Amino acid sequence: MADFVPDELLKDFITESDELVQQVEQDLLTLEDCQDAEVLNRIFRGMHTIKGTSSFFGFEKLVGLTHRAEDLLNQLRKGELAVTRAAIDALLRVNDQVRLMMGDIRNGLSPEYDLGPFIELLEACALGQVVAMEAAPVVDAEALPAAAAELAAEAAAQKAARALAAARPDTSDTMRVEIRKLDYLVNLVGELVLERNRLLRLSQDLANSDGKDAGVSEAVAISTARLSFITDELQNASLRTRMVPIDNVFRKLPRLVRELSHQVGKEIEIAITGQETEIDKTMIEHIHDPLVHILRNSLDHGLEMAEQRLAAGKSAVGHITVDARQQGDQIAVTIRDDGRGIDPERIRAKVVEKGLYTAEQAAGLARRELLEALFVPGFSTAENVSNLSGRGVGMDVVRTNLRRLNGSVEIESVVGEGTEITLKVPLTMAILPVLLVQVSDEVYAIPLRSVLETVRMDRAAVHLVEGAEVLVLRDRTVPLLRLARMIGASDAAEASRAVILSINDSRIALAVEALIGQESTVIKPLSALLRDSRHVAGATITGDGRVRLVLDPNTLIRGNSFSCAVQ
């Protein structure tokens, strides 16, 4: 490494190189499809830039590897070699190694690299030869003796730890922010300072007038309203500085689909829309794993083999679409495939086989209730366990991860046509709009995104169905929960209002004594002692300075659903 290099320069090098590595990967996947000269030139420039800056910092191993890759790319640019799958494979593997080496540099590591296989692969491609790099074997710990399994697991863990900046979205503690967002933020801070000065002066005038000057009182009221407006705008502007395009996750999906589709012997195309949709950077880090789980299931079990698709009158190529869009204060990510779909009757047989329901009970389950079984830990309809999926681990993890984010997941499927899975997560976890309700002199907060409406309770609309209370609302029967009973408040007054909560197509009515109003607040996690409290998602401090519990609509609604009964 070059002597006396400032840390800031090294950080800039790592940031720039990370972006170049990501762009090179995207361009290589594009080049495989379109054979565009400009894309090829962009890949060459990316490798050339990484090589040049690596040389300045003295990273000779990185220089040597990127230089050989640059040679192969130059041959492709000149037309001396054809752009083949073998060449793309070789360059992708080299790019992966560059990413891994950049991760080591970021973490201050200096391991010994065996770059011989990569150099040999590039040289073979330069000669027009097809040589496949030896892939790491897939180890099944259950099939190995205990000692061997332990060693294999340790080796795999070490390799996985070093390849982590490679498989996951950017989790660094720095991010780039658009200048326009910072300019707006700075302007608002200036407005806030001016309004504070004005309010201080008015406060002094009000004190000097002993509160008798109506003009000063009116000016204070106006200034307070102005201050409230600026604070809201400042809050929103500061949140926008944390927003990044969801493309930071999406850009990794084509490579994942490419590698896994060849692993399972299927030809699959992926189409992505809504990449420009913005989401909080911390949410980006949490939505990655659920997306990967769903894609793996779709690739392995959802999409059929080519001969099966042709026999069903479909094209031999399977299709997956991923779409992101903003819905209010949430982001909805939908993953669709045109595969075999999920057969409800297979689920019905499985729930009986696993003892979740008797045959008689299972016979009465609706299609949506059957689909809910897919989220039960350990539940799987796959006949065969593969390296990708089938062990019953996946969809329950998806739902668990999303619930930690106050998100949700829903499945729609048609046999023979395909499956659609929609993930919904908040735009940000920093600010939460809530509805404040009162029961027995206590105030609780309910996330506003799950509130469909509020209605006045009418005793004539409350009925008993199989021992449980329901509320008849515009000819629709909705399960009724009484918050007073849930918290054990024996001295609660008669509930006069009902809050209708909705997630996906499920609804409940929550009976409360009174509605206090709405607030935008900050939700705080519960302590370790209270983390497992049922129906409570966290706590917040309201405008009067008191701590209020935030109810969890997911668990409230699930309390009346199939998923709760079987878990």
List keywords for this structure.
Four Helix Bundle (Hemerythrin (Met), subunit A), 567 residues, disordered C terminus, 4 domains, Heat Shock Protein 90, flat, five-stranded mixed sheet, 19 helices, six-stranded mixed sheet, alpha+beta
Overall description:
The chain has a six-stranded mixed sheet with strand order 10-14-15-13-12-11. Strands 2-4-5-7-6 form a five-stranded mixed sheet. A three-stranded antiparallel sheet has the order 9-8-16, with no helix packed on it. The chain is flat, with a radius of gyration of 29 Å. The protein starts with 6 loop residues before the first helix and ends with a helix. It has helices spanning 7-34, 37-57, 60-78, 85-106, 116-126, 146-162, 179-208, 214-240, 247-250, 253-263, 281-302, 306-311, 344-353, 359-363, 367-372, 395-404, 483-486, 553-558, 562-566; strands at residues 243-245, 268-273, 278-280, 318-327, 330-337, 408-414, 418-426, 432-439, 442-447, 451-456, 462-465, 468-473, 476-482, 497-503, 506-512, 514-521, 536-541, 547-551. 47% of the residues lie in helices and 20% in strands.
Q: Summary?
A:
47% of the residues lie in helices and 20% in strands. It is of the alpha+beta class and 567 residues long. The longest helix has 30 residues.
**Assembly annotation:** single chain
What is the second-level CATH architecture of the largest domain? 2-Layer Sandwich
Q: Figure out the total of helices.
A: 19
Helicity level: 40-55%
Structural class: alpha+beta
For the termini, the CA-CA separation is 56 Å
CATH-level-4 superfamily name of the largest domain: Histidine kinase-like ATPase, C-terminal domain
The CATH class designation of the largest domain is: Alpha Beta
Provide the β-strand percentage band: 15-25%
Mean pLDDT: 80
- Biggest sheet strand line-up: 10-14-15-13-12-11
Do you know the CATH topology of the largest domain? Answer: Heat Shock Protein 90
- Number of spatially distinct domains: 4
Which ranges are low-confidence, i.e. pLDDT below 50, for 5 or more consecutive residues?
Answer: 134-164, 561-567
* CA-atom Rg in angstroms: 29 Å
Characterize the biggest β-sheet: 6 strands, mixed
Overall morphology: flat
Tally the beta strands. 18
